[in-house]
Amino acid sequence: MKKRLLAVIFCLSMPTGSALAADGATLFLANCSVCHQANALGVPGQFPSLAGRVDRIASTPEGKQYIVGVALNGLMGPITAGGNAYSGFMPSFKMLPDDQIAAILNHVAGLPGGTDATIFSVDDVVAGRKKSITPSAMVEKRKALEAQHPLP
């Protein structure tokens, strides 16, 4: 009985859902850092840096939609980011709740300074979910965006 009570108390003390979404840094570490590293600087030639780039890409409405699209749909194929070539696969994170995806994106958009940005809203993620496309089609969207203006 004591073990069961302790387990219930432990579970109730764990932050979930919206409580976790408020901490984009924790969510980033749990979901993204294995590839992009804890500081979001990536590994040249393997995983692109996100720090100092996501906010710049999201400075246009098309760029913002692209970033949300990558988080929801993943990305597969060759890209150039920060002057380095990458040919790989980023999985979709559409299994995460909308508020958590927005929190992760805002955290990364605030890097390298460390202060979460307020660029992405839950509504942006909800709208992005309505446009489900393949990971390889996200590469094509990136090429179209790159044709409009160079991406960092």
UniProtKB/TrEMBL annotation:
Database matches in Gene3D superfamilies: Cytochrome c-like domain
Keywords (A to Z) from UniProt: Heme, Iron, Metal-binding, Signal
Signal peptide: 1-21
Segments traversing the membrane: none
UniProt xrefs under InterPro entries: Cyt_c-like_dom, Cyt_c-like_dom_sf, Cytochrome_c-type_DH
Keyword presence, Metal-binding: yes
Molecular functions per Gene Ontology: electron transfer activity; heme binding; metal ion binding
Entries under Pfam families matching the protein: Cytochrom_C
PANTHER family assigned to the protein according to its UniProt record, in alphabetical order: ALCOHOL DEHYDROGENASE CYTOCHROME C SUBUNIT, BLL4482 PROTEIN-RELATED
Record protein name field: Cytochrome c-552
Gene name of the record: cycA5
